[in-house]
Specification:
With 476 residues, the chain is mostly helical. It contains 12 helices and 4 strands. Among the domains are: 1-50 and 417-460, no CATH class; 202-395. Strand 2 (120-124) and strand 3 (130-136) form a beta hairpin.
Amino acid sequence: MPTQHDELNPYALTGRTLDEYGVLLYRRRWIILLVIVVAVALAGYFSWMLTPQFEARAVFYVPQDVATTAEGPEAGKVRTPIGVQEIAEAHVTLLKAADTLREISLRFPTKPLPELFTDIDFVVTRESLIRVFARDDEPQTAADVANAFVDYFEEFHRGMIEDQLKHALAGVEQKTAEVTLEKETAESAVRLFQETYTIASLKTEQVGLEEQRLRFQENLKLARLNQVQADQRIRGLEEQLAIEGQAYEAGEIIMSNPVIDSLREQLARIEVEMAGKSTDIRTDHPDMVAQQQQYERTKESLESEIARTVQSKSKLPGTLYAHLRQQLVGEYVDQAANAARIAGFTEHIDGINERIHMLPLLSLQLDQITEEATRKRELLAELFRNRNALTTRVLKIPNVVVVLERARAPKDPIFPKPFLNMGIAALGGLIAGILYAFLLDYLESTKRLRKLRIIELQEWAKALPDALGAPQDRTQ
């Protein structure tokens, strides 16, 4: 229940009006102002006494060609952000790693690792942009630290890409050396095959062999015809000799002995060699000239041996018989030469026929080794192109990250901000001053009310005896 003195209590149930509160605050205005001034002064003092902190910001992103492929950046293409925050946050995890912080700390000796850990922040935006915030007492150091994280990220990824490219280049170099050796071996095999079998093309070789066979067949026919004619001439001369001399009888002169047989074999062998070489070299070649000279010498030796044999069987020199005998010697020599020529042509034709039958197999073998050599050359050319491409990529690796904003030395510190702090202190001082004014007014009103109640109690004690109708000793 409110008392008769509740009107003296400023916080009685009846309350106060706004005007009364205004009068109260006005009466305590100097106290409120003092609190505000003290708060502003303290805020300004501590703001100017604290070491200012500067914050620098760098912004970059990782393009899609780096984040989604293992081959590194693709030059000449639009490089947009990956657009996936999880991948960007994974890159931030790399930047927050202990090795990264240790490496950055080594670059800035004045920035110990614990301080660096607390003075660096990373923010990933919805667009997958990575923002690096670095704080330090020196504005330039703050900018350098923020840029150092971007540079380290670039160096780290470039190093990985470069190591991968160099590893691939080393593999290509090794494979190139192996294929080069294989190519040289295959080409040597082709050359050796062509030199061994003197074959370069199936069609060309077959046409040439057919022409040689036709030529040698014509020569063989001519040699056989000459042989038949020589046999006929020899029989005619033998008949004339039989008629001319009674001492001569058919079969009396035997045109065979070891020397003649050896000379005939030499003549046949020379004919075979000359027939074989005539398809490959010209008649004026030194080898052909030497073979021809040897053939003439062997023929002369055969003629001399036959003449000696015939002369040893006759004792009628200077007669018609002797003349016929001399003709017979010449015919025998021609017969031997024709026989050697027939044997040479026959043997060479047989060799040509065998070579023609071997041509498909030889051509197949040549095609196989030629195809192998061609395949090795193509593979080597491809390896050279790959090596050149890898070398170019190693020398011209594009930037791994795209830097949107390089950190610059900030002009104003991020903390403390004196005017902002003083403004906040003034507002806080105003609130504190008002509360303090209310507190003082409450204490003053309470004290005044207590005094009034004491006075009231004293007056009631004095009036009590009169109310009871009995005198009281005032000394009691």
